[in-house]
Amino acid sequence: MLEDLLYEVLPVVGFAMIACTAFVMIVMRKNTKDALIFCLFFAVSDLLSGIGTLIDGFYGVMVTIYGTTVEVTHKVSSTSNIFFQTISPFDCLTRAVNIPIFLITDYLHLLLLSAFAIDRLIQIMFPVSYGKIYPYFLNWKLFILLLFASAGLSVPGLAFPLESRFNTSVRVMSQCRFDEVVGEEYYLKHILTVQWGPIVCIGALSLTIILYCIRQTKHKWSYNWSEETSTTKQLFGTIFIRCFLSGLSVHVPLLLIARTTEGHELIAIKDHIIRVSYWIIVIIFQPLWHVLILNSFQSNVYSLFNRYSANTERKWQSANDPPEDVPAHLDRHGSPNPFGSWYSMTGNITGEAGVPVGNERSVSFYYQD
Fold first, then answer.
1. Start-to-end Cα distance in the chain
2. Which residues cross the membrane (predicted)?
3. Is the pTM of this model over 0.90?
4. Which CATH number fits domain 2-302: 1.20.1070.10, 3.30.43.20, 3.40.50.410, 3.60.15.10?
């Protein structure tokens, strides 16, 4: 019951993730000349996760409603049988394509965290050299390189389904749960990496902030800064919050699962519990803490929503506009007349042509054959 409800919620979460990441990409699309490009890198990674979440949710709903896989009987007592639909792990790779997507995006996120933390450390230690070399490596080539690296790191996660391809005794639930498809042994290593990766980045950032404070104690150590101090603090705050929330979103569900009795339904969907926590806290709430931390994000949001609201005053003059110094429309007898306009090229409601008196305006048309 809880798993069925989960698969109904996942498409909503997936759409929210895609919407939030698309918003971040639109707002930060012009910030590609400095370290703020990491915001775009994370947004693309989160977008891939959102697509995988959509696939996961829709696949789970389809299997729950229209499952057609092989039925295997598991006897849970002497008086009753429960039928579960099972499938081979290899078939899950071809049907539930969210499995390889989750493998890649998990490692891509950790690599981006590490790259951003190393970027901040280099900027603090060697600010002048950093100012000269960062345009050569802070670009989309770095993201593509990290994407291929994450794909390479994901290969061991495919070993279990590939090795058990022709082993008919190895079956998993037809919902293709991530931990069952990649195997329990690999999943334990994988979740430990996802759990402690952000904590390691926080340690690196702690070293960075210590070095930053030391450099600020003397003027001669900080005069050659290659960034504005406010920008440095904002970028540091951005990566620190993401590392902290990433670690928190994984540790808290794991503590909850560790306190759950064996056989509870939460144990079966433990990977989804961890992922939903991460998706909501880190990805969906990402625009919120960007607004609170990044001044450039705030200004870009303001300009995005106020692009057509400024300078709306009309600067051109129409031939149908009445003289600006005439407060009201009067008829030919000098009485107020709300119908028509004496200054309209089409005349007024009585069919008379408008003849302005005083402050006349004319429009000339020239034609050359």
1. 80
2. 6-28, 35-55, 99-122, 142-162, 196-214, 235-258, 278-297
3. no
4. 1.20.1070.10
